[in-house]
Hints:
Dna Ligase, domain 1, five-stranded mixed β-sheet, alpha/beta, binds magnesium ion, 10 helices, 3 domains, Nucleotidyltransferase, domain 5
Amino acid sequence: MALFERRTLEAVGVDIGTSSVKVMELQRTRRGYRVNCAAVESLPRSAVVERGISNVEQVGAALRRAAKRARCKRKNAIVAIASSHVITRTFQLPEGIKTFEIEEQVMIDAAQNVPYSVDEMYLDYQVLASMKAGAEDSVTVTACRREVVDDYVSAVESAGLRPVVVDVDTFAIARAFPLVTATMSESLQGKAVALLDVGEVTTHLDVFVDGTVIYDRDHSFGGRSLTESIQSHCDISFEEAEAVKLSGKLSEDDQEQLLEPFKRTISQEAARALEYFASAGRGYDTVDLLFVTGGCLRLDGILELISNYTGVPTATANPFLGKNIKARTKLKLQPTLLLKACGLAMRGAG
Ligand SMILES: Nc1ncnc2c1ncn2[C@@H]1O[C@H](COP(=O)(O)OP(=O)(O)OP(=O)(O)O)[C@@H](O)[C@H]1O
Ligand SMILES: [Mg+2]
């Protein structure tokens, strides 16, 4: 199983989140991509815990339903593990190193710098040729514990799909991000552009400069906290509370007491995530632009609120709007769940 797949392949992108699985198939076209199909299918509450699969059968069953509902044609699948489970290291290769010696260097580096035994890990690497004459090439090594990867592979297999690549979610997001910024008329050259993903249990901030991720961090916050407050306030089950939340039919009282405070908390979390970035010593005091994604960003009025709290122009990260991708109107109007699946599907677009 390769973390870095080198061949062109046709595969469905599979994003296994905490609250749902998302699938998407893209086809490469002359102008870019066409979305063949996509679907989202919810997961039982503890099927995915701390970004790892705790119930392979439940995840496999949801994935099977998603692929069926989307009418996916492909059996090959590309899945992503969370960057929080992955150790990524980049180091310079010794001068004059032969190709067959690179793997040995990778193993030596991993044995010294990865906090687990090499036998417990899957390792893959990619050589990055130096742009400067005379400078050494570097190699990026990605390592993840075998048990984490094996659960993803088993879940995909139990859905009747064939896992051909295990990617890393940050790489998938970075792949899809140019589709998001393609619609910007102003130049973003040299600017710090943030992407905030507010999901079920995690809020994740990536900051890009010229398409490269210069910062990424997880914060423990997500939509589950609103579901839980609806659950205890209304004395109903978690599943019923989730259904009420998604229907948008909260009583006026619940809107006032639960929904509006939750929206303010999202906005405070966004501001806090940007403050962490500003103090991380990356040479930026703030970001120039903030894109948002994740299920929680479907709440009415949330963009304006986040922009007010952060002081940064804020927009939905919509990968389907530019002229390089052809998608149905329905997808264009509901983009916030599918960015990661889109980045994975791009890798399997043929
Ligand atoms: N229309 C909506 N209104 C309010 N909340 C919504 C809506 N749609 C989805 N959500 C919430 O968004 C969250 C799920 O978002 P998303 O699918 O991005 O998370 P995930 O990828 O499953 O989880 P994570 O990224 O934390 O692993 C849930 O809390 C869900 O209730
Ligand atoms: Mg997610």
